[in-house]
Amino acid sequence: MRLQHRRPARGLEALFEGLAAGKGSVMACYGRVVRVSGSIQKTRCLGNLPCWWKPRIAIEEELARIGSRIGAACATIRADFDLPESFFMSACQTPIIVALDFPTRDAALKLADQLDPKLCRVKVGKELFTSCAAEIVGTLRDKGFEVFLDLKFHDIPNTTAMAVKAAAEMGVWMVNVHCSGGLRMMAACREVLDQRSGPQPLLIGVTVLTSMEREDLAGIGLDIEPQEQVLRLAALAQKAGMDGLVCSALEAQALKSAHPSLQLVTPGIRPAGSAHDDQRRILTPRQALDAGSDYLVIGRPISQAADPAKALADVVAELAL
């Protein structure tokens, strides 16, 4: 059911701003309701809270922390918008997304069974999805994981929008499309999600693949630096109403400056001392978060570790969460 409210969106905005005017660490968090249709993830968080600490986590935890007076306001939010008790909470309370880059269901689930859904989300990419189809998404969700469906859809607007709709109906937490599909394609995806009842996945645009450098772009007719192309595509994504972007951490600071409301998903993350593999434009987890990334995609340093659970815990410790 589409999120219903008994007063205008401005009422919730005013409530957040009122809370921010009080005392406590939430003061710098100003919520701007930009779309009231199915998910509080459409509330954008500004200020000095960690950029990965999304409103649905931060509001609930911070309200509880700074006292019953503000805690009562949280109940008011729920009452005004008919939200369930757990609406603001996410199973995962870190920015880490572990890539399940495996060819088989068994291999992917063997890794998933060693991970804690409270410490990471998981990414299902083309190889695993092609091998297992939608069943793997349902199985991972049953294990408590929020799933990023990383299929990078790119087709004519209607075809891409219908693919995004199908992903939403699987219950994925995040889905992505190539920004190079153009404004009309991205806008069609935004529209189909806004028209859908029920929870919506985050709709993320892919800018320039992290394996690509200037010479690679030149080979496809774009004789420009990757960051210039990233910024061009980011402007289109913002105009289309996308929730965020996949980008290299090296572009994160410029993107946050130009488009502060877009959430940034950064692959190519390598903990200090790990191999770079085929990624070129990379940073460590701490560097990426400091640069403005909201979510960190980590693959082989965790998936190929002798002890994946320890490798994940080490990254959490590196981030000092």
Please give the order of strands in the largest beta sheet. 3-4-5-6-7-8-9-10
Shape label = globular
For this structure, the CATH topology of the largest domain is: TIM Barrel
Low-confidence stretches: 1-79, 81-88
Compressed to H and E, one letter per element, the order equals: HEEHHEHEHHEHEHEHHEHEHEHH
CATH superfamily of the largest domain: Aldolase class I
Task: Based on the coordinates given, report the CATH architecture of the largest domain.
Answer: Alpha-Beta Barrel
Compute the number of strand runs: 10
Mean pLDDT score, rounded?
77
Q: Classify the beta-strand content into a percent band.
A: 5-15%
**What about the largest sheet?**
8 strands, parallel, barrel
Text of the CATH class of the largest domain: Alpha Beta
Number of helices: 14
Question: Which structural category do the helix and sheet elements fall into?
Answer: alpha/beta
Give the N-terminus to C-terminus distance in angstroms. Answer: 34 Å
Tally of structural domains: 2
* Backbone CA Rg: 19 Å
Determine the fraction of residues in helical runs and give it as a percent range. Answer: 40-55%
